[in-house]
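Researcher: Next sequence.
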Amino acid sequence: MDAFWRRGYRATSTRDLSESTGIGPSSLYNTFGDKRQLYLRALRQYFDTRTAAQTAALRAAGSPRARIRELMADAVDLDLAPAGGGPAGCFSINALIGMGHSDPDIDAELARHFGAVEEALHETVAEGQAVGEFARDGYPVVLARRVMSTYYGLRVLVRIHREREALLDVVDSALDALGPAAAR
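Model: Next structure:
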């Protein structure tokens, strides 16, 4: 997954994949099929790990506002300093920018990623409205999409704008746009 995440589909060579996996080129393709199949497998692995962690964080116990803020702040921190020297940014976004609309299977996999996050955000915003943390005058799905746009926008912006506090101002502004909390 890291080779594709760092370089993108088109720039990742068979040699890169062999070095990343520790498997020789012929064994690599005998085991996983072609490069496209390996890429789809990497996207599925990302969904099972990173996307699942994002949706789990949104569905955890606690304040809906705090859960959304934590999701976004954690993404900023991870993208500013990737754990263990891993790749920065969001593999799903990288894949969408690099491969979007070029392959129906990749599009379907990416739709699954973004759809899962949108669904979890929708649930969290609706919960926030129900408990009075967010204004009740907006459709939860529309508000969730606004938050999702900010979240993914931050994941791109952090590549060029490296000031953590400025990025967290964007996070707080997005949360403030959801309306006043009952008590903050």
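Model: The chain has a mean pLDDT of 93. The radius of gyration is 18 Å.
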